[in-house]
User: Fold this.
Amino acid sequence: MLNKLAKVFLGILTQGIASIATMVLSIIVARSVPQADFGIFAITISTWIVVVGSIRASTAEVFLFDHSVGERHQVSIRISQSASAGLMLSLIAALGLVALGFIVPSAANAFGILAVGIPALFLQDANRFYLISEGRQLVALAVDVTYVISIVLTMVFLFTPGSLSGFLWLWVACSWVAGVSGVVLARYGISLRGATDWFSGQSRTIVHFFGDFVVANGVANAAVYFVAAWGSLADAAAIRGSQVLLVPILLVMRGASVALGGELARLASVGKRRRVLQAVGVLSLVQVVAVGAAGLVVSVVPNDIVRTLLGESSDVTLRVFPFAAAATLALGLATVAMIGLKAAGDVRQSLSLKLITAPLTLGMMTVGVFTDGAAGSQVGLAAGESLRTALQWRRLLIWQKN
Assistant:
């Protein structure tokens, strides 16, 4: 039992370190570039989250929930197939980002650099799933810790570029090193045949997992695009700055999905439905504690410290922070309930609930943007995600009783 708990803890810690890498990158960029450039950075990060996340959902997440438990040889084959498919999708996504740069000229340079890094960013993210599924949490942790250290060393002590593009290039370079290192340590092969086998064998599941991620995270990240289009780049910077201050909640959200996904799926497969529901309830409570802790810290920390962290974007960030905290909490609660539904094998129902609530959430976010910019968008997001949380819990309770 202790061994299992230790592995779960290490899994959450590993995902937490990975999230810290993005936080560190955001702080370094915010301190070093003008507010408008940090707004472009916010758009770039949101695009990375949606693109790499959708690829991960179609590959590594399908593997984690459906194939991480079984005979070791078959698990290894699935890892190779999943990673191969993810790299193929990454190359397609990279071409799409280059094309998108022509449509959004102000972000063309950032999107071009991101395109170069998409395959590496996918590997750096997915390798964590593969290593954890093999019980090698410490190896996954070591890779992510090294990744964070490399970002700090290259950007703060070695090069310290003076432009947004310089920081993005260094981020991509560090990601390539971490991604390739993870492949070597996870010991799997990449092949075109593996990719085609994955798509042919998992097509139905991929559609559901991909749709489930895109609908939820597309809505959540739409706030950055909305405020950039109808508000200002400063508003986009404020949302990203708030996310930096809300790292504890983001760590729990992402860490739980990686560390507990496979374990909850195992509990559900042996009929321990009540245990699954209890775990989801405990994680929901942790979300509330995390947002409360983040709010308390931000309320007592002197504004000068926040300015030191976020530079020109600090003032707008502090104004938006309470609303972003509410939105992040609502999103976190919805994410935890979604993990429960996936573990129950009910990803189709999870997707249908998102499709129902997404138009309402987007509508409320749009009204919020025109009413009060970045803060209004977060109020709309919080309302929509709260509705989704309630519907998902209703579905989980029905599943537990059946």
